[in-house]
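Field notebook, page 350. I keep forgetting to write these up properly, so this time I am using the form the group agreed on. The chain and the ligand, 6-O-phosphono-beta-D-fructofuranose, are recorded exactly as supplied. Prediction of the bound pose follows.
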Amino acid sequence: MRIGILTGGGDCPGLNAVIRAVVVGGSVTYDDEAVGFLDGWRGVVEGAAVPLLADECRGILTRGGTIIGSSRTNPFATDAGPDRVLATVQQLGIDALVAVGGNDTLGAADRLASLGLRVVGVPKTIDNDLSGTEVTFGFDTAVQVATEAIDRLQTTAESHHRVMVCEVMGRNVGHIAVHAGIAGGAAEILIPEVPFSVEAVCERLRLRHSGGRFFSTLVVAEGALPRDESAAAAAKGAWVPAGGTDQFGHGRLGGIGGWLAQEIERNTGYEARATILGHIQRGGSPTAFDRVLATRFGAAALEAVHDGEFGTMVALQAGRIVRIPLSEAAGKAKIVDPHLFESVAGLYLG
Ligand code: F6P
């Protein structure tokens, strides 16, 4: 078979591990040929593709990013995009496409599948917000990076008797904040799913500090906002840079941490600092967990392609890799389990 592969949306550690599994696995087991579409759906819309040879892909397991590039191109927001995708696939003699992406990339794959595209999806995103799979690869690496950062912030917070606010990624969901916050012993974890009260946060900090502690580290997801409408508007104003929106309608986030640190300092008098971890969470080599998961997903996608199970996505459920309809996963944000948030993060153990 001649298999095309694309990686779309924000990159994440483990993408190259999927490419390796599909390309090397396909070549060795089935004598497949592989073609890499450049920069996500852009490559398929524009017919920009390169051959992917098994020998070139053998050494990429540990490498961060994606060797075929990524973008937030939406074929449905591009002139004649869906028709151009179908035409490219036909012109290049592609028998099947493996689309590796998150909600946006796989949402487009789902719509294209209903137009006849022979596509199998592989779930990725550091945010871990894709439904149908217990976890996406990239998430574990991001949590490790964020946890290490929180550990480091804790020691400098202690030395200077400060409040440190660590802002992590998570546009709509707070999985990274919750996991890294618990692992790093944060005093507060603030997530987009649960709007917070600045007053309540400050009150808990006062209580902690009056109890003899002289430092606190808070974790806030970039998409978290205060409950109070005027405070939320002020916090949104702090998002930097404002920028525009991408083809899927997402604006740029980043800045809530700085705003919150200022509010805490103003309300409590405690000296506060903010750190935005940003893309450090997305770059670099995947953890062992993400290498294994991405390799399993890649191998499973290859099997699904050879079984002709198009319009599906591979997913992790109860420790096993399964196939589910793309429509069950894409576009349905998986939020943080309220029980986990309330019962562990809400204990303020930090
Ligand atoms: O891929 C998800 C994500 O990492 C979000 O957490 C974040 O808001 C966004 O991507 C950042 O995207 P970009 O790199 O395009 O600014």
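OBSERVATIONS:
- The chain has 13 helices and eleven strands.
- The mean pLDDT is 95.
FOLLOW-UP: compare against the apo run.
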